[in-house]
Structure formats: C-alpha cells, structure tokens
Design a protein that fits this description.
- This protein is an alpha/beta fold.
- The protein has a single domain, classed as Rossmann fold.
- It is about 45% helix and about 20% strand.
- The chain has helices spanning about 10-20, 30-40, 60-65, 80-90, 105-115, 135-145, 165-185, 190-200, 215-225; strands spanning about 50, 70-75, 95-100, 120-125, 155-160, 225-235, 235-244.
- The protein has a seven-stranded mixed β-sheet, sandwiched between helices.
- Strand 6 (about 225-235) and strand 7 form a beta hairpin.
- Helix 7 crosses helix 8.
- The longest helix has 20 residues, at about 165-185.
- It is globular and about 50 Å long.
Length: about 240
C-alpha cells in the first residue's frame, strides 16, 4: 500500500488516531513496561533503536527515556505522523526522523542512510504493520532480521486477528468501553453509543489486514528469529517478537 492510497496519509485520520484513540488503548502502560523489560534483559545497552511506522513515536520516545545513551530513528511514511513525531523529539538530539514507507523494500535504504552504518540493535513497531498484506508482513519481518546484528531485538506491538468472530466482538466492545472512558474525561456528556458508532464506522478500518499472532510467530521462527513468543495479549492487542 503506497502513501498515495492510504488514509493514514491524511491529516484527518492521523489526527483522529493520535488525539482520540492512541491514549485510550487498553493496557498501554503495561505494554510499554513489558517491551522495555524485554529489551533491558536482551539488549541492555542498545546503541540505536528504530521505531518503524512510528506514528508520534510513543514507543521510541519511551525507549529513549529508558535507555538514555541510545540513539533513536523514527520512521514513517505519513506526513502528518512525521510532523507529530518531529514536534515531540525536536529538542532531543539523540533522535532522527526519517521518511520511509515499509510498504516497499525501499524503506531499508532510507533507514540505513540514517544510521551511518551503525547497527540497529533494537527495532520496534506499534500498530502499523497490520496494514500490510500477509506476504508483505513476512517480507518486512525478514528485512528487519537482515538489519539486526546477532542478538538484536525485534518487537512488534500489534493489532492481530481474533480466532473467531465472537472473539472479535469481545475485543470491539472492550475497546469501545476504553474509548468511552477516555473521551468522558474531556466531555462528561458524550454517550457510549456515539463513540461506538464512530468506532465501527471509522474510515481507516478498511485498511486493517489482521493476521493471527500464532501465524506471525511462526513466520518469525521460519525467518530465523530465536526466543520468539507472544509476550503480551489482550484480545486483539499483542506484543510479539524475538531476537536474532
């Protein structure tokens, strides 16, 4: 999927996610804590961290705060997202923002140019790769593997497929509860039904191409990653990955 065909290139969709959804994601603090702990144990002194499909850079910014000697690269293809992350890391000399579209293998060249040949010790991605077809997901995982040094870590915090339609419904209703609780803080009069209507009819929903977490872990193992696991899962929210 190219930038010209993706709704994520529009300010409307990007802003709606960053301002109305991202902060309402269930278990966000725990997700970050688990992600950080894995890296702390597997790669305790990362030199360079890549946040791939970074949005406003929430994962990379958390990790740069947790690992104060690391350099950070924030890569995305959406101009509104790039503007958002640039604003948040503008005063951080250890951060570099790069335009890169992982819908094409060319993203690797853009990221390599930003590293100046330094190894990428850690690659993280958050709620981004699921917009790609399954064959492209697998190609991205392989491209990341090739970029990592031995011992390098890849962690993907992702929206994954439910096993059944009943499970999908459970997730949707659980997510709407959290969205409603979040928006009530700003507008106590907002009704859950209004939040649900917007959620079920959101314009970016058509771009979700979800894959089961079990299948994605098998893809990682087949590529060569070791210690592959799903480290966190709540309905359709999962943290999966491994190390080279």
């Amino acid at each position: 999927m190219t930038p010209s065909t993706s709704r994520w290139q529009t300010s409307e969709v990007a802003t709606a996610f960053l301002e109305g959804v991202r902060q309402a994601i269930p278990g966000a603090d725990l997700q970050l804590a688990v992600l950080g702990k894995i890296i702390e144990l597997w790669c305790p002194s990362p030199g360079t961290i890549l946040d791939l499909g970074c949005g406003d850079g929430i994962l990379g910014r958390y990790l740069l705060d947790r690992f104060p000697t690391a350099q950070g690269i924030f890569a995305d293809f959406s101009e509104p997202m790039l503007a958002a992350v640039q604003q948040k890391v503008d005063m951080l000399p250890r951060a570099q923002v790069v335009t890169a579209d992982f819908g094409s293998p060319d993203w690797v060249t853009a990221v390599k140019a930003a590293t100046t040949d330094a190894p990428l010790d850690v690659v993280v991605s958050g709620f981004a790769i699921h917009h790609q077809p399954d064959d492209r997901k697998q190609a991205i995982y392989a491209e990341v593997y090739d970029l990592l040094p031995t011992g390098g870590v890849f962690l993907n915090l992702e929206h994954v497929a439910s096993a059944t339609t009943a499970g999908e419904r459970l997730f949707d209703e659980f997510f709407v509860d959290h969205l409603h609780a979040y928006h009530v803080q700003a507008d106590p009069q907002v009704e859950r039904a209004a939040i649900a209507q917007k959620y079920y009819n959101r314009p970016d929903k058509i771009e979700n191409i979800l894959a089961p977490v079990e299948a994605q872990c098998e893809w990682l193992r087949a590529i060569g990653y070791r210690d592959v696991d799903c480290f966190f899962k709540t309905f359709e929210l999962a943290l999966l990955g491994g190390r080279k």
